[in-house]
Amino acid sequence: MYKPELLAPAGDLEKLKMAIIYGADAVYLGGEQFGLRKASKNFTIDEIDEGIEFAHERGKKVYVTMNIVPHNDDLEGLEDYVKKLYDIDVDGVIVSDPGIFSIIQRTVPNLPIHLSTQASVTNYETMMFWYNLGIRRIVLARELSLKEIEEIIDKVPEDLEIETFVHGAMCISYSGRCLLSNYMIGRDANRGDCAHPCRWKYYLMEEKRPGEYYPIYETKKGTFIFNSKDLCMINHIPELVKAGISSFKIEGRVKSQYYVATVVRSYRMAIDECFDKCEEYKYQEEWLDEIKKASYRDFTTGFYFDRPTGEDQVYTSSSYIREYDFVGLVLDYDAKTSIATIEQRNRMFVGDKIEVFGPNKE
Q1: Taking the CB of residue 26, how many other CB atoms lie within 10 A of it?
Q2: By C-alpha distance, which of 61, 65, 57 is closest to 81?
Q3: Considering the entire predicted model, what is its pTM?
Q4: pLDDT tens digits, residue range 54-83?
Q5: Are 4 and 240 in contact (CB under 8 A)?
Q6: What is the DSSP letter of 41?
Q7: Continuous H helices in the chain
Q8: Could you give the 3-state DSSP secondary structure of residue 336?
Q9: Would the pLDDT of 123 be above 60?
Q10: Strand, helix or coil at 203?
C-alpha cells in the first residue's frame, strides 16, 4: 500500500512551521494574489521563500493556491508571479481555471500544476482530459463517494495522483462554487472573499405574504438550513488508504495554529499506526478526543459513504463547539531546573488545569 501524503493548511508562516513540526508531509498556502482565502493572512513572496526553505530542510513540500475563478483584471501580473514561485523552488501550484492553467504552463512549463477541487472533477474521463494536458495531481470534488473514488483510481494511470479532503469545514455549494455571498453582499466567494452566508440564520417567507415569517421549527430564532457539519475521517483511515488516495487534505487556512497542530497530530498518529500495525491496526478514540479540544462543529463523513442527509446539517447554531482554550506556546524547557518558557496567547490563572502536548508526545 502507498503511504499517503498528509497535507495541511498554512494561513501564515507560524502555521506553516507548526504543521510541519507536528507531522505534515506538505502544506498548502495562499499568496497575496490568485488564491481563495482573503480572510487568512496569506504570504508575501519573501514569506513563501522562507516557508519553502523551512519545509525543504525537513524534507517536506509547499504548494501555493492559485485557484480563483478569474475575471480579466485578475490575470494581471500572473506571469511574473509564477516565475518568482518557480525561482524559489515551490513544489507545485493549485489551479482551477483553464486560462490560469494555460498561462502557467507556457510561462514555466516545468512547474507542477495541481487541479483544485474548484474544478469539480467527478469522473475518470475528466481526469484523463486533464492528464493529457499535463496535470499529474487532481483534488477531487467533495461530492464523490469512496466507491466512486476507488473506481476512478482503478481507471486512471498510476502516475496521476488523487488528493481528497479528509477533515474540515464543508461548503453547502457544489465544490465550493457558491454565489450566495456575491448575491447578498457583493463579496465574491469564487475570488476568495466569501462572507459565509451559509452560516447565517434564515426564515421561510412566501412571496405573496411579505413580512410573514414561517419558522422551520428547529429553533424559535430561525434555522441554519445551509449549515453543514464539519468533515472528519479520522476513524476511517484504513478505508481511505485502501482506496489508493495519494494525499489526505485538511481544510483550515483561517483556523488557529492550535487547530493546525492538534488536527495534524491526530491524523499523523492515525496514518502511522495504520502502516506500522497493518493488520493489527486499531482506531484510538483519543485521536478524535484530541481533535475536539480545538474548536469544531459536529462531524460528518460527507459524501464518502452515502449522500448527506438532514442529519449532516447543524440546525441550531453556526457557532463552533469550544471546550478548551489555547493559552500558550512552549518556547524552551530546561530539564535541570524544570522551568519552561511560555509565550502567553490567552489568560491562565493559578488553579487552572493546563495540558501540555507536542509532536509525538502524549
Answers
A1: 21
A2: 65
A3: 0.86
A4: 999 999 999 999 988 888 988 999 999 999
A5: yes
A6: -
A7: 13-21, 45-57, 78-87, 98-107, 124-133, 146-155, 180-185, 237-243, 257-277, 285-291
A8: coil
A9: yes
A10: coil
